[in-house]
Amino acid sequence: MLNNLTTEITFFKSHPLGMRMLLLTNLIYGLVIPIIELFVGAYIMRNSSDLSLVVIFQLAVYTGIPLTFAINGWLLKTMPIARLYAFGMLLSGISLTAMMLLPELDTLGVFVAGLIMGLSYGFFWANRDFLALNTTKDGNRNYYYGIETFFYTVTGIFVPLAAGAFIGATDKNGWFGGNVNVAYYCLTAFVFALAALASVLVHRGEFQNPKRAPFLFFKFDRLWNKMLALASLKGVAQGYIVTAPTMLVLTLVGKEGSLGLIQGVAAALSAVLLYVLGRVSFPKHRLMIYLIACSLFVLGALFNAGLYSALGVILFMVCLLFARPLLDMAYFPTQLKVIDVVAAKEDRNAFAYILNHEFGLYIGRLFGCGLFIVLARYVSDYVALRYALLVIAVVHFMGWFMMRNILREPEMKAEV
Predict the structure, then answer these.
(1) Considering Cα of 230, then 234, then 236, then 239, what sign does the dihedral take?
(2) What pLDDT, in 10s, does the model give residues 162-179?
(3) SS3 category, 48
(4) Under a CB-based contact definition with an 8 Å cutoff, are residues 396 and 318 in contact?
(5) How many separate domains does the chain show?
């Protein structure tokens, strides 16, 4: 066992410094993401009676992201990429603080807090995507994303369990004078502390800014247009599945403690599998991994729609905890390979494609969030929670056919 661990550490150290520092930074910030994804929705539901506010927050997040990608492109001309990356991580704590300070949760206040979180994600993902592109090659990207998703999965075990137990114990034992919201304030302070630590670490990576060149274009190569279509289909799922687990668990299973327990147990089942896949899989396996992930998403949605009970939610969560990291493991290396190809072909700044890709995702996210908001406000919460997820899963599955089409292109089979 010890020898195997030593071998894996040695293999990790054999990769470039920039790649290793990026992975370590993302590991620390990965402790923050479950709090944002799971417990922000829980906080909104606890302090309001409007389920659609959860999705309005998420829609605001998704609106802020592409806008920030464009702003980030201009700022990269004069500011170090590590500083912008760090700023994005710190903004997540500011967003949570803004929401906690609202005297009453209403549509405008929740939207503004979500917009700030969108700015945070925009600076984080725009620079993370470029650094991942710049510090990896196609041959080691399965390993890179396997390690990254392994990190996120492991943190997804402990953080939801600990945070859910803390909130549940506060509620049960009457800590802080029986004010459960104080537990959320403590989690916000925890987010700030971790973001600050990750911000310090990212400056040790000696990362280079992209070359100064135009990055805003409206006409692209045919291969990139296919990638945008795939991004839109991926965005459809993102627009809903980030908030759906929280709403389903709190509606059908229990309180925040149950939310953390289910998330932690399901994540534990997938952690080792993801590491092994990242270690042993090759570019040729990406299409199969994506097919398995899409199928798991549809299966989970079927469990939820068919049972619509605590058991259905648990089965959906288990499927989702496998599906989401598998999707990322197949999708992101494919995206970066397409950027490698088209950037060389069109002689453009790679950041131009990272920016444009975000608008493709936004179109899908807008559809996913919009579907839920319309159903929740004009039909019923029941229909939105039970059936919208299945529709979205089926639409998302179409992405597998698009990925197959992309990977069959002659340029994608050639070495770049």
Answers:
(1) negative
(2) 877 788 788 788 888 777
(3) coil
(4) no
(5) 1
